[in-house]
TrEMBL record:
It is a multi-pass membrane protein. The gene is 552749. The lineage of its organism: Eukaryota, Metazoa, Ecdysozoa, Arthropoda, Hexapoda. Its main location: membrane. The chain crosses the membrane at residues 34-55, 62-86. GO terms for cellular component: plasma membrane. This is Sodium/potassium-transporting ATPase subunit beta-1-interacting protein.
Length: 189
């Protein structure tokens, strides 16, 4: 019964990661933040891979999911540092939008935010960036940091749970009984 609880725990973490990543993907699409959109897309693929690995007793899928989660953890730490302007990082730079001039959707549309635009000569392929944003309940940096922090927590739990579950799966993989055939499955259906 213990392996079922570990397996269900990892499946729950995968579902939570999928929900929070899709939510984050929607808001990155609204803001045309192309680098996060691309990385979120890969995360969705690997979370589905990890889900199927846990569901179908495939330790190799879970191991690849854990490897991706270490990269995902690094990406989200970068996002936190980016929005906190750590070191040479500047949240107003075009790193995340890949030079398109886009910005976080939360910058203008956060709770209570009022944007002031000074558009004298609009650029054809660049979105209008506000000159001032006031009355925000939460600054957009805080919202983005909260998103990344949530993903860091889920990613760390997924790495620990995935390593432990894949270890259990690999130990239980030698389930062939030379006298009677195969042992029953690890969890009842």
């Amino acid at each position: 019964m213990g392996i079922c609880n570990r397996r269900h725990f990892l499946l729950t973490i995968c579902i939570l990661q999928l929900i929070t990543t899709v939510e984050r993907q929607v808001f990155d699409f609204l803001g045309f933040m192309w680098a996060p959109i691309l990385v979120n897309f890969f995360n969705i693929i690997f979370v589905i891979l990890g889900f199927f690995g846990a569901f179908q007793y495939r330790p190799k899928y879970i191991i690849s999911y854990c490897i991706w989660n270490t990269l995902w953890l690094g990406w989200n730490i970068f996002m936190i540092c980016f929005y906190l302007n750590v070191g040479v990082l500047d949240k107003n730079s075009d790193i995340l939008n890949l030079g398109t001039g886009s910005f976080s959707w939360w910058h203008v549309n956060g709770p209570g935010c009022k944007a002031i635009y000074d558009v004298t000569e609009p650029e054809l392929f660049r979105p209008a960036r506000p000159t001032n944003v006031t009355n925000c309940v939460l600054d957009y940096e805080i919202v983005e940091i909260l998103h990344a922090s949530t993903q860091c927590i889920l990613g760390f739990i997924a790495i620990v749970g995935g390593i432990y579950l894949s270890k259990v799966f690999l130990e239980e993989d030698d389930s062939f009984d030379f006298i009677g055939g195969f042992d029953p499955p690890l969890c009842p259906s």
